[in-house]
Design brief:
The structure is a homodimer. Chain A has 20 helices and 20 strands. The first copy, chain A, is elongated. In chain A, α7 packs parallel to α9, α9 runs parallel beside α16 and α11 packs antiparallel against α14. The C terminus of chain A is likely disordered. The longest helix of chain A has 29 residues. In chain A, a hairpin with a 3-residue loop joins β16 and β17. Chain A is an alpha/beta fold. The interface between A and B is large, with 52 and 52 residues.
């Protein structure tokens, strides 16, 4: 399958792929449709932004097999957009054994004309012991191999399992790649999301991404909460499926990109979707449950697709880092999760475009963006044709180089160019220590690299405490000496 | 006038006040209506969430005086909700002299039945020299004194001027308070907002707030961009007026709480309001300008009131700090601006409720929340009946006290209570230096306070470098000694 990448930022991208029922633009959400419970008519899902839906082949097989074989899954649901079918492995995880084989469910999916079929993988839950996870995975891999036979004209999604064992996740991805799927679907992660274990989720995604080629379509199985879309897209995920919109609505829960609200706790509707612009919380609370459930499901869909559009727009503007760094503030576990990207520099460096329109500093996470390190590497190669070089912290002064956190050393002639010249960064005194240290680290590497030169560093006293243990070819001059003396006392 | 405060958080509040045309719940936005240019019919503004509108008495006086005197301003505009009238001082700032006196325009506002009238103040622009600002202010104060005579049944809004001179802003607030307004309207700030000088704006608001009693209604004149609503409400502002929704729409600009977008740059509409759910960016771009202008104005209103509802809900949930700390990431100048609240501890401490549901850490700004300092003060008074006290960084260990950043020292019996027990905070290794230092500072104060006791502090090696220069009554024990040895090498 061709995955046409139209635009990209961080590790995320806007892409397109073709199915038997038309193109799908990613990132996107597949609303999950229960073939037997109609909450919102599937044909109406387009109006919320849906380009593709997902349904459960196992449930159809158990309840409406003949009808589905006769009509095909699209007519069964009444939709003309692409349909992905799940195999029932979620039911397998919840209820144990299913009365169906991998081959039967694959063949069925193919016969009913599913656009994306999925083998009956074994979704091992988080924290499973290693042997269980490995044995489950072996079964999954075998079933994925068998799946090729049933592909026909459908696309094939290969689940990636392995519980929270990162080496097994990588093994799963490698084997799936060998088999050759059209979509790689990271599974068994719903329990991680339900318990806000976003660090584990981020690690799993990054380990899987480290194995798969950049043009692989990645589906995050069961990820339907808008709270994690921006982080997941920024890590390179393309598809999400949402049963959440309906499940949460049934339970009077209201989705937002900054978490879930219980309707009973809402005094105001913090959204402007057609539902929230029309009703007050009290009106919703007082209406019949069945009517309310539909309206909440509609809100949940509106807000989910809104977040997808916001993310896509951020990719177009190349400010997905800024969006993610704002979104992770909504829960400290997301903050923690994003902070581990520091450990995955190499893969971020490969994906993230170097040139962008702007660099807005949002906090210490901004220091982890690849451009900061890349800038520090790049300026090592700037040629210096002077014997004595002046570096200053004050852009108003004449100097050969300037110090600007978090970037470090900036040649005077690059002060107007990206990234530094297109950056909005608070003054050093208002920045996090980490940003200052990052700049000093860059400075030290630069000084070491040019150990044959003499440097004069002119700084204001604020900087003095950060500039310790510099090499011998450096003289420091304090621009506001009096304060400097105070500091030394 | 009675300002009934229903709920509060940070320095913000949800309040209610009565006008001649009904109650207004704050915080809210007054959409500005031009009596001669109908973009959205004023009577339709309620559907977006408007509870009160603003119009310009000077323009009405110049163009439709007799009609207004006959019908009154409500019938003139065709609305039944409260109307605030502006006096024309904005026109004064832009065009210089007006052909009207303060008394004339006040009397006119009163006669046409305005619910909130405003004298003809002098809006001195930012950075005016001190004498100009002072002289302008003297005129404003005189005109405010005269206004009392014309009040009748209307409410009186007294503008606060003084340019960027903080002492003049305070003087203006003090004088206005003496005169006795119903609403205090901070003016002359549009140029600050247009140039993203949010630090200056924050300082002006805080200085004015430091003078006015807590139950004064504060209007931020000309502040119509949703980007600053959360910060302004958190600092205690109650009313905003928005001509922006229309002005930006005329110019094909699209408001969002994270900044302004040009329609031409939008590939996706990052919003789910009834307009953005119905149209694509291309459909908007291709339609007649007059039609597009209305739709953009509608979007701008929807998104502005959405932000107000979101802020009000945050006040109800007592997580306005969390909302603001997320919103300030949208522009580094907002980040910088919020960081100066550190300098205004005293006033924040007075306003911010001590007990809340939860404490979500979002970054170094979370360390500035009053609860952190208040907790550190409070635990000084915890009685210690032991001679040797054990403090640990590891909650899994038995100890008398624990260290948890940014709070500092937590008595074992308080580990489940607010704030610490209700906090979500990353592990120390993933936190900003400032949070760790804040905790160490709290620890040191605690140790100093109990200099008669002996302390054993059991920490993991990560903490070693932060625990220097502790008093002599303290022994440090490293929980993971091997790593500790590595560190000392």
């Amino acid at each position: 399958m061709d995955f046409e990448i139209i635009d990209k930022d961080v590790m995320g991208r806007i892409g397109k792929f073709e199915t038997n029922h038309g193109k799908v633009e990613t990132p996107t959400i597949l609303p999950v449709v229960n073939p037997n419970i109609e909450l919102i008519p599937p044909k109406d899902l387009k109006k919320f932004g849906a380009e593709i839906v997902m349904t459960n082949a196992y449930i159809i097989y158990k309840t409406r097999r003949d009808e589905a074989l006769e009509k095909g899954v699209h007519r069964l649901l009444g939709v003309d957009i692409p349909v992905m079918t799940d195999s029932g492995s979620y039911q397998l995880m919840i209820y144990g054994d299913l009365e169906i084989t991998n081959e039967e469910i694959l063949s069925f999916q193919s016969k009913i004309g599913s656009d994306i079929i999925v083998p009956l993988d074994i979704p091992t839950p988080p924290d499973a012991d290693y042997d269980t996870a490995l044995n489950d995975l072996k079964v999954t891999i075998e079933r994925e191999k068998s799946a090729l036979t049933f592909k026909g004209k459908s696309l094939l999604a290969l689940p990636i399992q392995g519980s929270t064992h990162l080496d097994l996740r990588k093994l799963s991805a490698k084997e799936a790649l060998k088999i050759g799927g059209d979509v790689y679907a990271i599974g068994g992660i719903v329990p991680l999301m339900d318990t806000y274990r976003f660090q584990d989720l981020v690690r799993i995604i990054l380990e899987v991404k480290s194995v798969l080629p950049s043009n692989s379509v990645i589906h995050l199985f069961g990820a339907g909460h808008p709270m994690i879309f921006s982080v997941a897209v920024a890590l390179g995920c393309d598809l999400f499926d949402s049963a959440a919109y309906a499940i949460y609505a049934k339970d009077d829960r209201y989705l937002t990109p900054y978490g879930t609200k219980k309707l009973e706790d809402l005094h105001y509707l913090p959204c402007s979707c057609p539902i929230c612009s029309k009703y007050s919380p009290n009106e919703l609370k007082e209406m019949e449950k069945s009517e309310r459930e539909i309206l909440l499901a509609e809100h949940n869909l509106y807000v989910s697709f809104e977040e997808i559009r916001r993310i896509k727009q951020a990719i177009r503007e190349n400010n997905l880092f800024e969006l993610v760094e704002s979104r992770i503030r909504v829960h400290p576990n997301l903050l923690k999760a994003w902070r581990i990207i520091r450990e995955y520099k190499d893969i971020l460096d490969i994906y993230d475009p170097f040139i962008k329109q702007s660099f807005f500093y949002t906090g210490i996470e901004s220091c982890y963006r690849p451009v900061v390190r890349k800038h520090q590497d790049r300026i090592l190669n700037v040629e210096i044709d002077k014997e004595e070089v002046v570096i200053s912290t004050d852009e108003g002064e004449l100097a050969d180089f300037y110090i600007k956190p978090p970037f470090g050393v900036i040649p005077a002639e690059m002060i107007e160019s990206y990234p530094v010249g297109h950056s909005e960064v608070p003054q050093a005194e208002l920045m996090e220590e980490e940003a200052l240290k990052m700049a000093v680290e860059g400075l030290k590497r630069f000084l070491d690299y040019h150990s044959d030169k003499r440097f004069k560093i002119r700084v204001n006293s604020f900087w003095m405490k950060y500039l310790k243990n510099l090499p011998k070819n450096v003289v420091i001059e304090c621009l506001d000496r009096r304060k400097d003396l105070d500091l030394q006392e």
